[in-house]
Amino acid sequence: MARQHSAVARHLLILGASGFLGPHVVAAAQQAGWRVSVASRAPGAAPRCAGRAPDALAEWDAEQAGATAELIESVRPAAVLLAAALARTDECERAPARAFALNAGLPREVARLSRERGLRLVHVSTDLVFGGLPAREARYTEVDPPSPVHVYGRSKAEGEAGVLSEHPAALVVRLPLLYGDSGGRGLGASDALLAALARGERPALFKDEWRTPLAAGDAALALVELLGRDVRGLLHVAGPERLSRLELGLAFLDARGLTRSPAAGGVHGVLRAELGLADLRPRDVSLDASRARALLSTPLRAPRDALAHR
Questions:
Q1: Which residue of 114, 142, 268, 289 shows the fewest CB atoms closer than 10 Å?
Q2: Residue 79 contacts residue 61 (beta carbons within 8 Å)
Q3: How far, in Å, CA of 283 to CA of 278, rounded?
Q4: What are phi and psi of 221, to 5 degrees?
């Protein structure tokens, strides 16, 4: 078992807290007794989870030279959780230089600043660093080399390497496809599906794209637990079930009692190739999270279990 990491000040800085995952991490960290400062372009725009606001908000432009160093020096946290990224694959394809700046250059800079100041650093990465080569076993483990198929995956893989090169004591957590409450913003796998149905669309869900999805709330609890543990290097935090995007969507609709509704009738399964996306969407990036499950007290639940107790 990993020994507990000492966090004397219990002050956490979350970078990129206005995204889908960020508000869940804020709630989980406050529940665990951390004082939480958040920084993003629009730090006040994210909804509250569990009715709680961060302890401090800071506007932060990650693309402005010197802004990150100035922020960390001003906030003086004990730990940093880096969740900021250019995460939409289409945006990354259109603007690769920006993708590498935010997904590779920024993590390297944050790692260097954290090492110089003796800060605990947990960096959030993705299952999409895989897909180009098959896993050595049934699912990708931490020893499988990255094999990204698009700019987003390549930039995130470079960011991982940069973090661990600059700050060997840091932890890089690869997360899978996340679902859950986004505060009405239509973010994440489940809320995006609901938003599409509400607009009267016929969502096409891939039946040949496989992931190990995890509830955003479970991911946040795991990340916060890992802040307080002396775990470093790479770690996969993912759900126990390998599901297609179609299977996940149907599981969510079933949990909401919407499977037989007229709107849900518009959901249909498609193949990646039918939409011309076979090259840009890897077929299977399922993660093996057995090491994380052995380390964590936080349960990493299957979708039907998590959705039944939302």
A1: 268
A2: no
A3: 8
A4: -60, -40
Amino acid (1-letter code) at residue 257: G
Q: What is the 3-state secondary structure (H, E, C) of the chain?
A: CCCECCCCCCEEEEECCCCCCHHHHHHHHHHCCCEEEEEECCCCCCCCECCECCCEEEECCCCCCCHHHHHHHHHCCCEEEECCCCCCHHHHHHCHHHHHHHHHHHHHHHHHHHHHHCCEEEEEEEHHHCCCCCCCCCCECCCCCCCCCCHHHHHHHHHHHHHHHHCCCCEEEEECCEECCCCCCCCHHHHHHHHHHHCCCCCEEECCCEECCEEHHHHHHHHHHHHCECCCEEEECCCCCCEEHHHHHHHHHHHCCCCCCCCHHHCEEECHHHHCCCCCCCCECCECCHHHHHHCCCCCCCHHHHHHCC
pLDDT at 252: 86
Q: What is the pLDDT of residues 100-144, one digit of tens each?
A: 999 999 999 999 999 999 999 999 999 999 999 999 999 999 999
Q: Specify whether the CB–CB gap between 306 and 251 falls below 8 A.
A: no
pTM of the predicted model over 0.85: yes
Contact 179, 194 (CB under 8 A): no
| Per-residue tokens: 43 | 């730090």
Closest CA to 127 of 169, 185, 167, 177: 177
CA distances to 56, 98, 179, 269, 272 from 253, in Å: 36, 36, 12, 14, 22
Going by C-alpha positions, the residue among 25, 24, 29 that lies closest to residue 11 is 29
Distance CA 187, CA 179 (A): 8
- How many C-alpha atoms does 141 have within 13 Å on its Cβ side? 7
- Could you give the CA distance from residue 176 to residue 173 in angstroms, rounded to a whole number? 10
